[in-house]
Specification:
Elements lengths: L6 E2 L7 E2 H8 L6 E4 L9 H8 L1 H14 L5 E6 L5 H5 L6 E6 L9 H11 L13 E4 H11 L7 E7 L7 E6 L4 H7 L9 E4 L6 E3 L12 E5 L17 H5 L6 H10 L5 H5 L9 H5 L6 H21 L1
Parallel strand pairs: 3-4, 3-6, 4-5, 7-11
Antiparallel strand pairs: 1-2, 7-8, 9-10, 9-11
Helix pairs in contact: 3-6, 9-12
Length: 315
């Protein structure tokens, strides 16, 4: 799988080579967790892929489950999932379906899936879901199908194009390297002048500064927005409103961690240790009236903590 170049986009903020991820799993008992819906309510890519390519995805599930010698397979869907019968008829031992509530956010990250599993299925299922299992999404599974079954190189990708600057939303199969501007030309151009481009969803994605940005293996969706759909992007000083703490599903303090990263002030180690709990859902960014990049700063601190731990172990 490594030489196939398939990228696992289960977490769009941290995509990884699927082959290396499988290799790093080792020989431990593990499960395959398959998310067939989107964790970002402003993105429909994985939901559409599951709708149109369910048979190809299920073939890829069997391939991956066999590759990692999975003890169990868990399908994660939302209440609006249209191909539930195909999952119920799926011929594989220890395959189960978990229906999550997509009306609340976050709803599709590892921690949320584990919590939902423990609440509703743990007592009736012969396997246990942990953060060390293999988590994949619809987009990744379709790429596995193309690479293994069709033996096609990974040079094209389905991307959901949406926004109030274009005439209609659509799911396009695009060549990697195609610029966003060229994509819009292919679908009839702009209905109104674009003011912002958001890649991979308003909650979990990022804004880009140019329409010349290319489609990559990590791109799931592109939203082109007009001025009346965006807010002031200027970064202000923290107003100590506490919104980030109230909204955080992991109960950490994004404001304290942000001030620590910016001002290098002394804080209790319990706050630094809490960065490992962050699932990078981006809610703190969404509710911050000062437009502070809280989520990005916590992700940076998280990476620094992981690298520091690796260096200490090597010493």
């Amino acid at each position: 799988m490594i030489d196939k170049g398939v990228v696992n986009t289960f977490l769009v903020s941290n995509p990884v080579n699927l082959g290396f991820e499988i290799k790093n799993l080792g020989n431990k008992v593990k499960n395959l967790v398959v998310r067939l819906c989107d964790e970002d309510e402003y993105r429909l890519t994985d939901s559409l892929m599951s709708k149109f390519f369910i048979q190809e995805i299920l073939i890829a599930v069997k391939l991956l489950a066999k590759t990692i010698n999975a003890q169990g397979v868990l399908f994660v869907v939302n209440k609006k999932f249209e191909n539930l019968k195909e999952l119920q008829d799926f011929q594989m031992e220890n395959a189960r379906i978990l229906i999550i509530d997509n009306k609340t956010f976050p709803c599709g990250f590892k921690r949320d899936i584990i919590n939902s599993f423990n609440k509703s299925l743990k007592k009736s299922v012969p396997f246990k879901i942990t953060k060390n299992d293999l988590y994949v999404d619809s987009s990744t599974l379709y790429e596995v199908y193309k690479a293994v079954i069709l033996e096609l190189p990974s040079i094209e990708k389905f991307v959901h194009i949406t926004g109030n600057c274009i005439y209609s939303s659509c799911l396009l199969n695009l060549k990697m390297g195609t610029s966003i501007n060229d994509v819009i030309k292919q679908i009839g151009g702009y209905e109104s002048n674009p003011a912002m481009v958001v890649v991979n969803g308003s909650q979990t994605g990022t804004s880009v500064s140019s329409l010349d940005v290319p489609i990559t293996k990590y791109t799931k969706s592109v939203s082109i927005l007009a001025n009346n759909k965006i807010t002031d992007s200027h970064i202000y000083s923290c107003v100590n409103c506490g919104n980030c703490r109230l909204s955080c599903p992991a109960n950490i303090c994004p404001d304290i961690l942000y001030k620590y990263a910016i001002e290098k002030n002394e804080i209790d180690s319990i706050y630094l240790d809490s960065v490992s709990l962050c699932n990078e859902c981006g809610l703190c960014n969404t509710v911050c009236p000062a437009r502070l990049p809280l989520g990005q700063m916590i992700t940076t601190l998280k990476s620094e903590t992981i690298n520091k731990g690796k260096n200490q172990n090597e010493e």
